[in-house]
Amino acid sequence: MKDEFAFISKIAPIKTYQSSLVQGIGDDAAVYRGSEKMDEVVCVDTMVEGVHFRRDTLSPYQIGKKGLAINVSDLAAMGAIPAFYLVSIAIPSSWNEEELAEIYRGMDELATRYNMDLIGGDTVSTDGPLVLTVTVMGRVERNQAKYRHQANAGDVVFLTGYVGSSAAGLELLFDKGVGGEFTVAEQVLVHAHQEPTPHVEAGRILATFHERISLNDVSDGVASEANELAEASKVKVTIEADALPFHESMKNFSREKQLDWALFGGEDFVLIGTVAKEYVNKLSERFRKRNVLFFEIGNVEAGEPGVFLKDGQQVTRLEKHGYNHFQKRG
Amino acid sequence: MKDEFAFISKIAPIKTYQSSLVQGIGDDAAVYRGSEKMDEVVCVDTMVEGVHFRRDTLSPYQIGKKGLAINVSDLAAMGAIPAFYLVSIAIPSSWNEEELAEIYRGMDELATRYNMDLIGGDTVSTDGPLVLTVTVMGRVERNQAKYRHQANAGDVVFLTGYVGSSAAGLELLFDKGVGGEFTVAEQVLVHAHQEPTPHVEAGRILATFHERISLNDVSDGVASEANELAEASKVKVTIEADALPFHESMKNFSREKQLDWALFGGEDFVLIGTVAKEYVNKLSERFRKRNVLFFEIGNVEAGEPGVFLKDGQQVTRLEKHGYNHFQKRG
Which residues from chain B sit within 8 angstroms of residue A129, using beta carbons? Predict the structure, then answer.
């Protein structure tokens, strides 16, 4: 069957696809050359019922919305503009048509906000839990995609929003149940868990900043994501405990819980990144003008790759053990 | 949060993505404008253990290879050149690392043949059956993608390979088990089921033919796929029973079985399409030169959309009930 391949090569040199592969696996999304002006960004994420979500903490609508949000967050972390999505879903008989429609309505709600088109998918049956796989595609100006491996010594570490809220909301849901009575402050945290907002605008500010930026999204907690930046960039990252930004709704919880949720909780879907110290004011000014949050939370030094938490005089190493939901793998 | 969207619109008009959407859902793959010269084609398919495959008929290597082949076949049906793939897999604890590696080896084997790069994916755990979701991306010369809705009255219906072999192979596997003793002829059929070849080369001949072509791949049996062509194109399709091409390995089976497998078996992954009668000789000559099979099997007329089988003087309507494996949905 070698002929078949040779024939294809003759018509259009597939080699150009390989050489146009800007970045492979490593970051959560892949980037490849699209047109003269824009690179293409694509990624896929899977959510399994009982592993990544439970029906007693998320409604079908929220499952859909969050399933797409997780993927759009990966695009945001590359600085990309969301464009298309495809939905593949394996459905057990315990889900009815209305619940299924609610999943799609949740995705459509978020997609409409970003002008994303649903362009494909597959619907199959399963005897197991519901499995929702979303593929998203976006575009970013040529060579402007942001990666994890771009941090250098001398950089400042930043976050584009509050952390810990989602994990706090999940704990509240576990405590009181989805129908529980929540204070206004608690509702904010529960909402942060149930309907997270991907930081697309922050990603676009960073992609159009035209200075070196390293970037990642906080899906697994600050400790895990900072470690990914440190490992990919081969640098030492130090985070100041007192600089971690918490939403005011968190203030009734102990400092210990706040830190634990921020560092190891995950699913906040803000962006974490680094920028050279000399550009940090210019960058934070861009965020301020757009009314987008920007917090300096630490710094980057040369050294053995790793992440450290500085809390007053105490410095402790932060291992890369992120939020694992209720599962072993993934 | 409307601001966020407005901001994105200002930087890059997302509307251009929407207007550049050449074709939405309907065909198995979506096409959108990539560069000046090439359109992008993308599709996704999910295989569930116990629904789309069973471990007693396919090895982990074959599950991987077939999982990718099914998707590449969707690209072939659009006339596209395969380029990239992403793999999302939900794994139960009953699968070990070696078996998992075999799934990826099977995909890699097929991908290498088409110079496809694995550019992303997700690996998660599940308490249910294994769920394998593959997203594939390819490219086709601008405006040359082939669709189901292009059949016209006066067209000839063609197939690019033998049909029924996969279903025959599956029946043999059910009868004798994967370790059973198969004759050489039977091995051919079993192989057709376990390691189908997507018809990429045929798709490329058709995409570069520059005449109107309607096209679909035979994943669910000729009856089902011909009905999709008929419905999408709003035409009446007649298939000649005696023109259906069977591999010589099928000759020991009854004609009734052969027809049943071809029409309702599925998973042959040849292409079925139509072309105007005046171009059929020119087209079949192109296939002959490339040593790719091409069979005329019927014709297209104006009329109520539907598919009919002409067997001697007898004409029967073929309903769109394709091969459903062992499942209800998908």
Answer: 126-128
